[in-house]
Amino acid sequence: MTTITVHCLGAFRALGDSLVIDVSDLSVASIRAAVSSSLVAMERADLNTVLTRSVFAEGDELLKDHVTISGREVSLLPPVAGG
Amino acid sequence: MDLFARNDGEHYLCGLIDGPCQIVGLDLLVQDAAHGAIAQFFGVVRNHNEGLTAVAVDYDVHPELALKALDDLCEDLCTNYPVKLVMIHSRGLVRVGEASVVIAASSTHRKDALGAVSEAIDQLKIRVPIWKKEIGPDDEQRWLDGHSLRKD
Questions:
Q1: A-chain residues near B150 (CB < 8 A)
Q2: pLDDT tens-digit map of B80-123
Q3: Mutate which of A55, A56, A80 to disrupt the B interface (most B C-beta within 10 Å)?
Q4: Whole-structure pTM value
Q5: ipTM at complex level
Q6: Do the Cβ atoms of B9 and B86 come closer than 8 Å?
Q7: What are the structural domains, with CATH classification, of chain A?
Q8: How close B1 comes to chain A (CA, Å)?
Q9: Upper half-sphere CA count for residue B35 (Cβ side, 13 Å)
Q10: Taking CA atoms, what residue in A is nearest to B120?
Q11: Is the dihedral of CA B54, B60, B65, B66 positive or negative?
């Protein structure tokens, strides 16, 4: 298992500025699954509907789920609502 | 304006500012002796949304990604419209009546400036990683839903 830090933005700030999760591999799909499990464990399963519509980013790159990250930190971006 | 993040392109300036945006003097940033039109848009926090009373909006921003998205958007707009453009968005608390986003464009004739400003705010809302938390009169808070950036 590898430990990953997920920086929380928008609605995910309710969980704190970041989450620390363990993943079996470094694919975005695995990170997404681990975050989903964490939401259930934190009794915030309601945020899973937001998670489904959210995207992960590493640095300034938005990531698709099949991508493998190179570092150990990602940002979790819920649907955007600027303006 | 005291921007904490900014990018300067050949024909544009985009940036992020802590707190409300300044409105006065925005037109000076796009003035050009060859341009006969200046169009401006100010996005201002209003006192109601979806039937609820609001007193402020707290904007959350991913600075690196937001600046990159603003820069990409300005590049696209300046490719599609022959304009001089400025686009600035707030981070943090913006109260009712204050501006959270300001956009100005100048062009030789009005059509391009008006078109660029209109497209700028439409695209900003769906492309730039910024989130708003609406704050009510009793400090109740709710994150507003938005546009997914997910492509898969």
A1: 53-55
A2: 999 999 999 999 999 999 999 999 999 999 999 999 999 999 99
A3: A80
A4: 0.96
A5: 0.94
A6: no
A7: 2-77 (3.10.20.90)
A8: 18
A9: 24
A10: A83
A11: positive
